[in-house]
Write a structure and sequence with these properties.
alpha/beta; binds pyridoxal-5'-phosphate; 7-stranded mixed beta sheet; two-stranded antiparallel ribbon; Aspartate Aminotransferase, domain 2; 323 residues
Length: 323
C-alpha cells in the first residue's frame, strides 16, 4: 500500500479563504518575497563589484545595492527607452535593464546578445518569458491582487536555506478593496507597501503562492493585450512616445506621453488612477534630462484584466478633450 505523508495534515476544523485551485505561471522559477530581494539574491550569488542602473527606475532597487555596499552608476535611456551605453562595462560589473511597461522584450533580446553580465528587471513585464541563461526577476503585485511575491530565474542557485515569508499582516488593502472599495483600502495599501521595505530575502509566502496559483493567466494576458491594442489604435497618433508594438505582448499599462500638464490631474478627477513612474526620478535627475521629462509626462493608462472595452472607451472619452 502507498504510504501517505500525514505529518502536517489536519482534518476538519474551520475553512481557509476559498481560492480556486490551479497552477502558477512560472513553476520552474525561484519563488521569493519581493523583486528587490530577488535582485539581492542575484547580487549575492554572482558577487558583482559594481552595478549600472537606469535613472528611470524605482528607488527601492537601491535597497539591496546599498545593503551589500556595491558601488552603482546611473545610465541614461533614449526616446525608445533603450540604454545609451557610451561607457565600458567592467568585467566584474553588471548591467540592469528594465523591460519598461512590458513592451521592451525586443530590446531585452538585443542586450542579451551584447552584454555579458546582464540582469533583466521584468517587474513591469510579467508575461515576458525569461531568456535562457539571463538572470531575470519579476514582481507579482504589479500585475495581480497579491501583497508581495517575486519570481527569479538564475542559474547559480543559493545553497542557503531562506525562511518562508508571511503576508498576513500586509494583506488588508486587498480585502478592503473588495469589501469597502478602492479608496477605503488606500491608506492600508500605502502602509503595506512600506512594510515591504528593508526585509531580508525570504521564500514567497504560502498565501501569495496560493493566490497566484488561482489566477487565470490566459485570460489575464488576453484582456491586457486586447485593451492595450484598443488604446494604441486610438491614441498612437496623439502619443508622443512612438513605439512599434508587437501585438502578442501583454503589457502592464499603456504609456501615453503627453506634454499637457493638466492631463494626469484631469484623469484622477474622473476616477482614472494613473501612477507616476517614479517620483524618485525627480531627485536623481534635473529638468533637462529625458528621464525627468518621462517621469513628468508619461501617463500610464490602466489596461489590466479588471477592465472591459467599455472601460477603455471611458478612458478615451475622458482623454478626448486633451487630444
Ligand atoms: C521597475 C521596478 N523594479 C522593481 C521593483 C521592486 O519590486 P518589489 O516591490 O516587489 O520589491 C519595482 C517596484 O517596487 C519597480 O517599479
Amino acid at each position: 500500500m502507498q504510504k501517505i505523508e500525514t505529518s502536517h495534515l489536519t482534518i476538519g476544523g474551520y475553512f481557509g479563504l476559498e481560492l480556486p485551485p490551479g497552477s502558477e505561471y512560472y513553476t520552474h522559477l525561484i519563488r521569493l518575497n519581493t523583486g528587490r530581494n530577488a535582485l539581492e539574491y542575484i547580487l549575492r550569488e554572482k558577487g558583482y563589484k559594481k552595478i549600472y542602473i537606469p535613472y528611470f527606475t524605482c528607488d527601492v532597487l537601491l535597497e539591496p545595492i546599498q545593503k551589500l555596499n556595491i558601488p552603482y552608476q546611473f545610465y541614461s535611456i533614449d526616446d525608445h527607452l533603450e540604454p545609451i551605453i557610451d561607457f565600458e562595462i567592467e568585467p566584474d560589473a553588471v548591467f540592469l535593464y528594465t523591460n519598461y511597461f512590458g513592451i521592451k522584450q525586443h530590446a531585452v533580446k538585443c542586450l542579451s546578445t551584447k552584454i555579458t553580465n546582464l540582469i533583466i528587471d521584468n517587474s513591469q513585464a510579467f508575461f515576458s518569458e525569461p531568456l535562457p541563461g539571463i538572470d531575470t526577476f519579476y514582481s507579482c503585485r504589479k500585475f495581480f491582487g497579491v501583497a508581495d511575491g517575486a519570481y527569479l530565474q538564475i542559474k547559480k542557485k543559493s545553497t542557503k536555506k531562506y525562511a518562508v515569508d508571511s503576508s498576513v499582516n500586509r494583506f488588508s488593502h486587498l480585502i478592503k478593496n473588495i469589501d469597502l472599495g478602492v479608496q477605503q483600502g488606500y491608506s492600508d495599501y500605502v502602509k503595506n507597501n512600506k512594510d515591504l521595505e528593508n526585509n531580508p530575502i525570504r521564500i514567497m509566502s504560502p498565501l501569495t503562492r496560493k493566490i497566484l496559483a488561482g489566477v487565470n493567466y490566459a485570460e489575464c494576458a488576453r484582456i491586457r493585450k486586447r485593451n492595450f491594442n484598443f488604446l494604441h489604435k486610438h491614441l498612437k497618433e496623439y502619443n508622443l512616445f512612438k513605439f512599434n508594438f508587437p501585438e502578442e505582448y501583454s503589457p502592464m499599462v499603456y504609456p501615453f506621453l503627453s506634454n499637457n500638464k493638466q492631463l494626469k490631474l484631469h484623469l484622477i478627477q474622473h476616477n482614472i488612477y494613473v501612477a507616476t513612474y517614479w517620483p524618485n526620478v525627480f531627485k536623481w535627475t534635473d529638468t533637462r534630462m529625458y528621464e525627468n521629462y518621462l517621469a513628468r509626462c508619461i501617463v500610464p493608462l490602466p489596461i489590466d484584466h479588471r477592465y472591459s472595452l467599455h472601460d477603455m472607451l471611458y478612458i478615451l472619452n475622458t482623454l478626448r478633450t486633451f487630444l
